[in-house]
Amino acid sequence: MRGDDTGARICVTNAKGGTGKTTVAINVAGALNERGRDVLFVDLDPQGNATEGLGLVEAYDAAPPTLFDALTDHTRRDVVNDLIVEHDEMDVLPASIDLLQAEHELTIADLIARIKSDPNLSGGLEALESLAINVESAGITEGHALDALDVVLSEIDHDYDYIIVDSPPFYGKLTDTGIFATRNVLVPALTEATSERAIELLIDQIAALESQVGIEVNTVGVVANRIENTSEDRTMLQWLEEVFADFPVWEVRKRVALQRAFSAGSSIFGYEERVDMEEVFLDVATELDRQFGYAEVTA
C-alpha cells in the first residue's frame, strides 16, 4: 500500500553503465501513464539522458535556478515547482548541466552533517562551507545530508500517483539521495555475466545505506533488459531469478523500436510504432499498482 498521501516513489537504479536504465525508467513511467496514473519523472542523472530522451534538451541547458539549486540551497527548495516541465505522457523534473557539481556539494553537506552531529568533532565547518557553491551549515539539521531530494519532493504542490527517479549510473551521494527519497528500487540488469558483480555491489550499497541512516529500502522488482536468445542470457536469467527469488523479474527482449521511441522523445506508448514489449512494461505497471494500492485502471 502507499505509505502516505504523496504517492509512490521508485528509484530506478543500477550503477553499471549500459543496462538501459533510462530506457526502462521512461517506459515504466509511460506504462503507468497508460494505466491512467499521474506520473512525475525525476532525472537525477547529471548526464541528462532521460531529459534528452524525453525531448527536453533545452531544459537541460536552462539557466539557473535548476534542480541543482533545489537540491543544494536550503533556502530555494520550493523552486522545484517552477522547474517541472509538461510532457505528453508525464511531468518531468529535468536534469541540468549544473548537476555535474551536485556530487561535490552533497559530499560537503554530508561532511558538515557529520561534524555537527558528533560532539567529538570540532571546527572545520567554515572551511567546508567555503568550498561549497550553495551548501550552508544552517541548512543541515540531520546527522546526514541525504534527505535533499526527499525535502525537495515534499515541496511539490501537485499530488502525483507515482514519482519515478532515474538515478545516476554510479554510486555516490546523488544515487544515495535518490534511494533515500524513494525507499523503493526497481533494478534494471543486463543478462550478461558482468551484471553479477554490479548486482552484488548494488545489494551491498543498499544495505550500507539502510544501516547508515536507519531506513528500509524495498525492492519492487527487476527488469532483465535487452535479452537475446543465447546460453549466457538463459544462464543470467536463472541467476537473477535465484538472487531475486522473492521479487518479480520481468524480461524485456532487445528491440530496435525501444531506441527509436527514445530518439523520438517518448516511451513506446507514445510512439507511432507498435512494440511487443509494451505488454511487459504494462505488466510492470500493473504489478506496481498492486504493490502500492492502485487497484483499477482509471483511464
General description of the model:
- There is one protein chain.
- A hairpin with a 4-residue loop joins strand 3 and strand 4.
- An eight-stranded mixed beta sheet has the order 3-4-2-5-1-6-7-8, with helices on both faces.
- With 299 residues, the chain is of the alpha/beta class.
- It has helices at residues 21-34, 49-53, 57-60, 67-72, 80-83, 102-117, 125-131, 148-154, 173-182, 195-213, 231-243, 256-263, 278-292; strands spanning 8-12, 39-43, 85-86, 91-93, 162-166, 184-190, 218-227, 249-253.
- Helix 1 packs across helix 13 (278-292), helix 6 (102-117) runs antiparallel to helix 7 and helix 8 crosses helix 9.
CATH topology of the domain at 8-60 and 83-95 and 158-289: Rossmann fold
- What is the end-to-end distance? 21 Å
Q: Could you tell me the radius of gyration in angstroms?
A: 19 Å
Which band does the percent of strand residues land in?
5-15%
Shape: globular
**What composes the largest sheet?**
8 strands, mixed
The assigned CATH architecture of the domain at 8-60 and 83-95 and 158-289 is 3-Layer(aba) Sandwich
SSE order: EHEHHHHEEHHHEHEHEHEHH
- The structural class is alpha/beta
Q: Which stretches are poorly predicted, pLDDT < 50 over at least 5 residues?
A: none
Assembly annotation: single chain
